[in-house]
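Good morning,

Both structures are done.
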Amino acid sequence: MDRRSFLKNSTLGAGAAGAATLAAPAIAQDKQVVKMVTTWPKNFPGLGTGAQRVADRITAVSGGRIEVQLFAAGELVPAFESFDAVSSGAAEMYHGAEYYWQGKHKGYNFFTAVPLGFTAQELQAWMHFGGGQELWDELGADFNVKGFLAGNTGVQMGGWFRDPITSLDDMKGLKMRMPGLGGEVLRQLGANAIALPGGEIFPALQAGTIDATEWVGPYNDMAFGFQKILKNYMYPGFHEPGSGLAVGMNRGWWEGLSEADQALIHACCTAENDVMMAEFNARSGSSLDTLLSDHGVSLHEFPEDVWNEIANLSEQVVADVGAEDDIGKRIYESYASFRKSVAGWTKISDQSYTDARARALSL
């Protein structure tokens, strides 16, 4: 090898070595630690663990470039201050239920659940193919927040009561934990609806601050121990027929991500929507059996006249959101139109099949 070739190859080698030396700091600089605050107690089954799965999934799929550190309710901010923390940039992400933010705008209810609203499958259909995500994005832009669905509990139970609800009179004066528009329906019935984060419900029942509560369903309710205080379990839950949970992100932070990282986060949220729904379906049946057989819980269906009055009031309460402002009107109209179009298919598909299966097999 002549001197010129040696010098050329040596120069190329030095350049490659220099590039390798520079690559490590560049990768290190690309890594970021992200705070996710939640509305759930630490490690709470289903909801808290679902939020942790989202955080862990984003961290894993990004190869650790986006390391998401989760903070349970109260660890960094109180549960109901999660939205403000993300909006202001104090945290990059939250995991919670959008109806907790109805004080910002009542339209947020539609992205968790509204009374007599979408099932879990219908909500996903609206979000992905009915214009729901676009309306959510528009609403969130006013608060510097971008959201994605990242979990669903499915249809919820009607709640826990000291005595079964047998008439509309039983609702009058009742102090019951229920957030969202379902709480407004209770007020129309003469009850006192109180919004409490999950971790505060059991102490409130113990202290007599509330007489009754709803939370989610057998899987989560048994974990909170409501069966230790109340024994009457009502169904179905009119207020949350398919409760979507969300990851909300600071919009400035979100818009600073590459398109690839945005797609990564969206995919991780969508994955949790599927996994959490599967978990609740898998756990709730056996949990209900345990509540009934081992804890002396009695199951009661709401009487037809009570349910019908609840349904009538629910329709008006939900429609009132459309009178809020232009975005409220468009969210409500989109919801109402899509519910009408999808309900017929739900009736002759899922509903008719499960009814026929139950009749044929006595399930």
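Second structure follows.
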Amino acid sequence: MSDKVFIAPRLVGSRFEDHTLPVNILEDFTALEDLLIEVAKGIYLTENPNRKRVPKGFSDGIYLKLVEIDEGSSIAKFAIASMIALNSTLPLENLNNFTYFEKAKDRIISVVESVNNGNLPTEVDYKLLSYFSKIGKNLLDDESIDFGYDYSSKTSSKAILNKATRKKLLLSGEQKTEYIDNIKLFARIPEIDQKNNTF
């Protein structure tokens, strides 16, 4: 594997025991990619108070790509990549923005950790918490994602997102983001009368 691993979340639960990823879980990582970009922009603006906007092309073409799924339940190894590096018409300083994405990853991990330690996130813009309406949405009751998992030393972190953590994150914002969950509804219909259109 030639790509440098950017983040390697460990997914635990019955659906991941065969070291694969259900397709609907990839939606969660799409939302994580969006959150990384927003947090990276916020960090850039905080560190550069003289700027009102991020530089042109700050996140153009930057994306996460799944490079491997390892065993240990399922460990999804993602590299961060950029189309700009391959076909650059933008200034070279835009290629140095990867450091902001590293910092964004660390910030997201620390927010999930803080909630698991019993603290509410304070340093994060509350609008960013709304991204957790999509991240973790497809987890089942027995499943979790460890965003801070260290795949090289195979050690877990406290940045574990499960249904309970996700709910705390979504309800911790000032605007109390709506909490949405996937549910299954089962019903028993004892009689259907097609003639009278009743059941």
